[in-house]
What does this fold into?
Amino acid sequence: MRIWKQLLLSLAVLLAGLCLWLFVSPAAGPALVKMGVPLEVVSLVRAPDASQPGVPGGGTGAASPGGQRSGQGGGQGAGAAGGQGGAQRGTLIAARAVTIGTVNDRLNAIGNGEAIQSVVVMPQASGTITHILVASGNKVKKGDVLARLDDDEQLIERDKAQVSLRSAVEKSSSYRNLQSVARLDVLDAQIAEESAKLAVSTATLNLKRRDIVAPIDGVAGIVAINIGDNVTTQTSIVTLDDRSEILVDFYAPERFVAVLKPGMPMDATSISRPGETFAGKVDSIDNRVDAASRTIRVRARIDNGSDVLRAGMSFSVSMRFPGEAFPAVDPLSVQWDADGSYVWQVADGKARKTRVSIIQRNPDKVLVKADLKADDMVVTEGLQRVREGQPVRIQGAEQKVAEAARP
It folds into this structure.
């Protein structure tokens, strides 16, 4: 664009701005007259508002110094009256009512599920696996045989012990019936009989330990052995889980220590069962707070009679508490100065600075400790124009009053 076009466009914008200023501001006319703009020009532009008092040209319209002074005086008087009227009406602000919120009323945590009993079954003796009597997923009872080791040697030892026992019993019985046998020999025969009985018990126990049995009621996991494997007392055979109930361990923040009690209800959800909520109770609470995380370990118990939950699942745990009630204000209303935080409270149409102590910050509200009640109004917008004891007007309040009074 050429330079003369740019200059014309700039002049047009400037003239439009001056005209708008004349229409909007009552003090614009006197200011332009002081700067040397002819009164006729100002009066021509303000012609639509010539009837208003204090507008240049609204009087006689005479182009005399006296007329200029009269026009200026009228404009200043109107401006002052408008300013005084705005001060009497009060500063326009936006405000919101105080509500009541609660703190420490809900606990949300992530927990891990465990079976109420879980056992890794291991043999009580070393040997070769000859039988496997359990499969993954089988429900077993305490004492059920899960697998067997080779027991030929133990059977022979048991039979030998039984033969020795019969010999010892016969000898002891004969000595007791004979009068000629010394008492000491009779006592030795009785001791030999007792020793033979113990040897039979030992052989029987060793034979029994060739059977690998279930120590608890539960459900078998994956069997980790095959027939023919040589195992020791450190070999894992299978894992048994009693999942009739699931224990959920989670960590609660330190602030809940005083309110957590065994037996309190809780709800848990699992990502594997969306839409389902499982009710449970707090089973136990740890005796100390972890110094690193400032949390305490809590264990809850959930009934699993339907057998839909598994050990090792993650759970989202929630608990409800009565909590403590505090006034809740809009986050925009909280201000700071050298003495701390405060809000502007609207009371009897005037602004009053009320000191607050922040208890908890939430995305939509701030819980504070202050001399505030429910439905008290606090300023949220126009805060920079508010002063102590200054009259204020709440945006939209006058319209609501007028609508309410309208028949």
Q: What stands out?
A: The first strand starts at residue 91 and ends at 97. Residues 127-231 form one domain.
